[in-house]
Amino acid sequence: MSEKKTIRLIITRQDRPDSAPYEEEFEIPYRPNMNVISALMEIRRNPVNAKGQKTTPVVWEMNCLEEVCGACSMVINGKPRQACTALIDKLEQPIRLEPMRTFPVVRDLQVDRSRMFDSLKKVKAWIPIDGTYDLGPGPRMPERKRQWAYELSKCMTCGVCLEACPNVNSKSNFIGPAPLSQVRLFNAHPTGAMHKAERMKAIMGDGGLANCGNSQNCVQACPKGIPLTTSIAALNREATIQMFRNFFGSDEV
Ligand code: SF4
Ligand code: FES
């Protein structure tokens, strides 16, 4: 009788935000075309570990299932990436799943990415609009610039670039590459430019541009191919101009 094909997973688990992490191994039946999410769903359906002991279902987050929301980000075989696009057939076994350590662990593979969302608030990563009356059509952007901006707008706040960056950790308040790149995006928008000086001020202080160590890990890790290091270099140039403006007493860049 032929042996049934299985998938081996070693998952780093943590029961509570303040409890110690531990590893648990699982062996689940193989099906063609599985991804890490479907493997985790199989464990949820039948939470029994590789020793045959009943255990608690593994906790993780997911939403879009098409690499758009960033919620399912975790460290898979040592690499931060999205679980929904990690195909089992392309992964070496045993497959190791760990939470992204840059963020506080909520439970198992679920992390709290508030740090990144708070940074987006700090840098005003939005276009201010007054919804009390009809503003009419907004200013038009030249097509080439719109296409360029679209590339930067693909950021899904997944946190992978922060996880890959050696300068983002619990001891540093560096906001990290993704929020910096969003500053470049919103500064370039004709309406967003109104808040350019405020955004620059936010990233010229503690935890901003100066905390980047230029390791270049972020740009290699980003699943959306966002030119993060180019954005940071462009912002450094803008920061120099802003410093001169500040020195000569003008708020405008
Ligand atoms: S810049 Fe890329 S890696 Fe960083 S949060 Fe956005 S999509 Fe994720
Ligand atoms: S579930 Fe949205 S990126 Fe994976």
TrEMBL record:
It comes from Parageobacillus thermoglucosidasius. GO terms for molecular function: 2 iron, 2 sulfur cluster binding; 3 iron, 4 sulfur cluster binding; 4 iron, 4 sulfur cluster binding; electron transfer activity; metal ion binding; succinate dehydrogenase (quinone) activity. Keywords: 2Fe-2S, 3Fe-4S, 4Fe-4S, Iron, Iron-sulfur, Metal-binding, Oxidoreductase, Tricarboxylic acid cycle. Its EC number is 1.3.5.1. Its cofactor is [4Fe-4S] cluster; [2Fe-2S] cluster; [3Fe-4S] cluster. Pfam families: Fer2_3, Fer4_8. Residues 146-174 form the 4Fe-4S ferredoxin-type domain. Belongs to the succinate dehydrogenase/fumarate reductase iron-sulfur protein family. The lineage of its organism: Bacteria, Bacillati, Bacillota, Bacilli, Bacillales. It comes from the Bacteria. This is succinate dehydrogenase. PANTHER family: SUCCINATE DEHYDROGENASE [UBIQUINONE] IRON-SULFUR SUBUNIT, MITOCHONDRIAL (PTHR11921:SF29), SUCCINATE DEHYDROGENASE IRON-SULFUR PROTEIN (PTHR11921). One of its GO terms (biological process) is tricarboxylic acid cycle. InterPro entries: 2Fe-2S_ferredoxin-like_sf, 4Fe4S_Fe-S-bd, 4Fe4S_Fe_S_CS, Beta-grasp_dom_sf, Helical_ferredxn, SDH/FRD_Iron-Sulfur, Succ_DH/fum_Rdtase_Fe-S, Succ_DH/fum_Rdtase_N.
